[in-house]
# Entry
Amino acid sequence: MYVSYIKLVNFRNYSNVSFEFDNNINYIIGKNGKGKTNLLESIYFLSATRSFKTKNQNELISINEKKNIIFAEIFDDINKNEISVNLEKNFKKVTVNNKIIKQSSDLLSIFYAVFFSENDIEIIQGTPAERRYYLDIILSKIDKEYIYSLKSLKRLIKQKNNILKTTYNSEIIDVYNTKIEIENIKIVSYRKNIIKFIEEELNIFNKSAKNNIGKVKIEYKQSLLNFTEKEKQTELNYRECLYGAHRDDFIIYCNEMDAKKYLSIGEKRLTSLLIKLTEVMYIKKKKNIDPVILIDDALSGVDEIRKEFFWQIIKGNKLQTIITDTEMKCVDNNIFESYKLIEL
Ligand SMILES: Nc1ncnc2c1ncn2[C@@H]1O[C@H](COP(=O)(O)OP(=O)(O)O)[C@@H](O)[C@H]1O
Ligand SMILES: [Mg+2]
# Structure
């Protein structure tokens, strides 16, 4: 799939503008503050109906304006689809070919974008919550069952926390624990599956001499198998839910060293970009769709050899790719034979 056209009205710094894109490589050049990230944000919004920058959608409406529009034409192998998003303060309407879409997950089969940015490094060096969030977002896009389990677990944890803090009752806690164990098994199983996939794909990338991050192993740190007296007592002492998928984490080892602790910033950046690439592959495999790749200044801090390694993979994927940069760095290296240049 690819986005051929987008029109933005009152979207962040754009009052009324439209862009046409090539179905392969697009290169967006502009100085700081020109709106490169904003443009990618508008495209990403079409697939996730959420921003990668903010949880508050009102920020996407230009200052001093009351509503905005994102309108886009999306092509897949057979069809052309028109997606339109209308935002007003605390209101969102999404239509596909003039039909209102109620669940944002219904959009994903029509348009799916993967966004690469400098912040992806947080998958490696960020907090456990950031790593869990990363997995949760992908898995929620892939499988509705995962969304149900995750929501259900969150609700159970919230209620159990309340009971732990107020009217502790061992029997009620046991009921909650049984329910939590059931959701926990499902969530952990999904997460372990995708982690195994990421690990395998990273090790395939590793066969290239240009990327010497070493053999990758990813270990899922599961905080709960089942509740025994020990766990119950600890939770009672702290009066808090301490065990379950909401407290899990994963550790990435490169050559048996914890990547978070030992890799250089450049190595972490490249590894995180490669993890995002495995997401592209996961979606292709699970959903049988070709996502659009959005790359925002993402290769700053990565050396020339590894940049070229990354671009060669992008080139080999033959997916629509929209790259932003402040100057024409990767085109200078003649990596892409042809591309569409958009100057902001
Ligand atoms: N809601 C908004 N209304 C108007 N301008 C905005 C809004 N949100 C962000 N901007 C402006 O967008 C610009 C940043 O755009 P951005 O896409 O981040 O630039 P870059 O090209 O450096 O990626 C800033 O100048 C900021 O003031
Ligand atoms: Mg930017």
About this structure: The mean pLDDT is 92. The CA atoms of residues 191 and 301 lie 30 Å apart.
